[in-house]
Amino acid sequence: MSLLDQYFSELQTANEKEITEHSLRSALETLLKATAKEVNKEIEVLQEPKRHSKFGTPDFKISNTAGIIGYCETKKIGENLDEVLKSAQIKKYLELNSNLLLTDYQVFIWIKEQAEVKRILLTPQTTQALEILLKDFFRETPQGIGTAKDLAKALAVRTRFLKESLKEALEEQIKKQEALKLIGLYQYFKNTVSEDFSIQQFADAFAQTLSYSLFLAKLNAEEQLLTLQNIKNFISYSFPVIKEVSAFLDNLEEEEYKPVRWVVNEIITIINSLNIKEIQKSLSFNKSSISSSEDISADPYLYFYEDFLGQYDSNLRKAKGVYYTPPAVVNFIVRAIDEVLKTEFGIGKGLADKEQVTVLDFATGTGTFILEILKVIFTTVPANSTLRPEIIKNHVLKNIYGFEYLIAPYTVAHLKLSQYLKD
Fold it and tell me: Are 228 and 268 in contact (CB under 8 A)?
């Protein structure tokens, strides 16, 4: 008896009146895993545990070493799948990946790129057709990410899921009045940022910061495969917020954080499949621009964050007044100040004078002005000068300040400026 014949036989013996959406999950999982292995032994079919949550996640994730192939979503036998296809839930899942299998265990619908590819009602006569459908579904190539722009989009979609999962988990803990990690982190953010910090603001800031922390870990780990267990080893703790956020990863094995853990694992799967050298190349500052003023737009992190923000929450920019000064304008303002310091105030080294000049950018965003100031400072010494470490230690780290209210741009600023100084 074939796998599909066995599955069909189990389906026939089930009591349709008593079974739920989850009753036949094990049988379907066995079928999916066995069929996937026939296509490629590297394909992994991961069943997500049943959760009592208003914020759902796909029931099965199908992936290989190259990334996520697609998802499978199950419904109760006899449920109107055409109505399900129109739901917000399915639209969310298709944002994650355009390859989706929807089934009520009897009817299987393959959706690809927002369109229905094939639909099969399982009968003794259609088992072969269903086997072909499943194998074609598994043969889909994972959606590759080769550019920073593609990565920004992939991260943004999953960060929205993460925000909702965190918000729901925190509301549940507050409702139960439990002294758990997430409540402690919420209080930390309120103490650090603002006493008026709402649950929604916290979930938003936390989700963005955690996503960027995971991405930062991949930049540091390079070709090494990341897991939930080792990822903290590659996250820099040079600033407190990242340290607090990253410590939360230790709690994800706990039952109440399952929806959060699912999204974090999604992000880890995505970043593990990156062509990391190409991403690093696209996010690396042109080394010639460190000592030259020719390339005034060399701020890849600004564009990365703007792409991310546009996909993540297009209304956030307007609500928080997040509008970035164009690099050419930043370049003009900074160099004009440097010139005024020299000509009007008699400070020969301009912005590079560590004794007379202190800089404060009081709404620094992603650090665009500070970056330009660093470029001007480093034009005062040759590219291979041994004075550069001394300038960083005794001028940059002591006299250059930036304040930022929004946590995500604050994180990006740290990531960007440390990468620039590293380059």
Answer: yes
